[in-house]
Specification:
Blueprint lengths: L3 E7 L3 E10 L2 E11 L3 E2 L2 E2 L2 H19 L5 E6 L5 E10 L5 E2 L2 H11 L8 E13 L2 E3 L7 E2 L1 E12 H12 L4 E7 H9 L2 H6 L1 E6 L4 E7 L2 E8 L3 H12 L3 H11 L11 E7 L2 E6 H23 L10 E4 L8 H9 L3 E3 L13 H17 L13 H9 L11 H10 L3
Parallel strand pairs: 1-6, 6-13, 14-19, 19-20
Antiparallel strand pairs: 1-2, 2-3, 4-5, 7-12, 8-11, 9-10, 9-12, 14-15, 15-16, 17-18
Helix pairs in contact: 4-10, 6-7, 6-8, 8-9
Length: about 425
């Protein structure tokens, strides 16, 4: 049975759905779709009915394209309510030692969640960072090693129950199970960062529509998370206000002409506004000037958040997310943040879009998790053994809030039951 998984990334502006096959360490994209999302504001679900309709719409399209039934999705949720904890737990295997199994690791990870936290918090992910056995410390799961004890240093990520449960519920209302969950920031890191970045220190800026998430990684841990109330919306709003046009038209200009390079097509007129009989022409240079001004404002607000990290140390920084899709944004960011900054775009064929970093990262998250917790049941089964290759080539041409019940309890109990 092929390892094929579906990922759902629900944002305030867009909904991303990706289906991919894991082959060894490669990710082969079989289907990907981005559509506008409705019913979500700043990461909080306000209308689950309309959001359920959007999710069902994109799943139906994927099922038609792949000619099969999708039964589960891996879900990335917003970072806005997330909290981080470092934990370590241990279990005794035997006095003489026995071989470490994945069940032993799961048992230790469950123990890692047993700490005092607020009643409103729910554990989302427990990520093992370092293992300690009789042979010493390692970042690789020591499955099969003989040891008398097993200690695991782990990162525990929690979020608000009021945020988490509606996300799970809205997926299940579509008749789909939730395969696994993590926060958007951590999923992005699984795609954008390698082990060196995670150890030596790096910053990730995920620019969304109205908010941007700043996360800091060092010593293998996600150590700092914060949300800044700026994003792609700020650029669109400034265009709309200055040119006196609608937000939809401003967004269209930003997508078509959006560049921070004031020398590109500087005299080309892109819009004319008439106010009280007076005409005003706007050129590409006018647009670039507006975008430049906004970029400095946005990055200075983000800098205020980054300056508190690790006593103000300067770390290489990556920008991901659909809100960062502006040419030369990394140049201005480097100037403002006073550190190396680069725009990160996935290299996976069929998904080379900044807004898909979290979706691709979630696939790698599943790949790592199954080494620890065992195989996941695939999200779908293709009709025949030749479908994967044919679909891959076809795909390249296409562009209950506070109460757990049913499958919600089952999902959350996978790691965090008392047993």
């Amino acid at each position: 049975m092929k390892n094929i998984y579906a990922v759902l990334d629900i944002g305030s502006a867009t909904l991303k759905f990706l289906v991919a096959e894991i082959s060894n360490i490669n990710v082969n994209v079989l289907f990907v779709k981005t559509i506008p999302s409705h019913g979500v504001k700043k990461g909080i679900i306000e209308d689950d009915r309309i959001l359920t309709r959007d999710i069902r719409k994109v799943i139906d399209e994927a099922e038609t394209f792949l000619e099969t039934k999708i039964t589960s999705v891996a879900l990335t949720i917003p970072t806005i309510k997330a909290k981080l904890y470092q934990s370590d737990s241990s279990v005794s295997l035997s006095e003489t030692g026995s071989k470490i199994t994945s069940d032993d690791i799961v048992r230790v990870l469950r123990l890692s969640s047993k700490f005092k936290r607020s009643k409103d918090e729910e554990v989302v992910s427990i990520i093992p960072v370092r293992y300690h056995s009789d042979k010493g410390a390692t970042i690789e799961a020591p499955i099969g090693e003989v040891s008398r004890n097993l200690i695991v240093d782990s990162l525990v990520i929690t979020t608000s129950k009021e945020l988490l449960y509606p996300y799970i519920s809205v997926v299940e209302k579509c008749g789909i199970e939730v395969l696994d969950i993590t926060i958007n920031a951590f999923a992005c890191a699984k795609e954008a960062f390698d082990a060196v970045y995670l150890q030596e220190g790096a910053v990730l800026i995920d620019m969304g529509y109205k908010t941007s998430t700043v996360s800091f990684y060092k010593d293998g841990y996600l150590q700092y998370l914060t949300v800044c109330q700026v994003g792609g919306y700020d650029f669109t709003r400034n265009i709309a206000q200055n040119m006196q046009i609608s937000m939809n038209q401003a967004e269209a200009y930003k997508i078509k002409y959006g560049s921070l390079d004031v020398t590109k097509g500087q005299n080309d007129i892109i819009h004319t506004t008439v106010v009280e009989g007076q005409k005003r022409d706007y050129t590409q240079q006018d647009l670039a000037d507006l975008l430049n001004e906004t970029a400095y404002e946005v990055m200075n607000k983000i800098k205020e958040k980054i300056d508190v990290i690790d006593n103000g140390g300067k770390y290489e920084t990556l920008i991901v997310g659909g809100g960062g899709e502006l040419e030369r944004l990394d140049t201005i960011a480097s100037e403002v943040l006073e550190c190396p900054v680069r725009i990160y775009r996935p290299e996976t064929i069929g998904a080379r879009d900044m807004s898909l970093v979290a979706s691709i990262g979630m696939i790698y998250y599943l790949l790592e998790r199954k080494q620890i917790v065992g195989e996941y049941t695939p999200s779908l089964v293709l009709p025949d053994i030749t479908s994967t290759m044919s679909i891959r080539f076809k795909g390249l041409t296409k562009s209950t809030p506070k109460n757990q019940s049913g499958k919600v309890s089952k999902l959350l109990d996978t790691f965090f039951s008392e047993d």
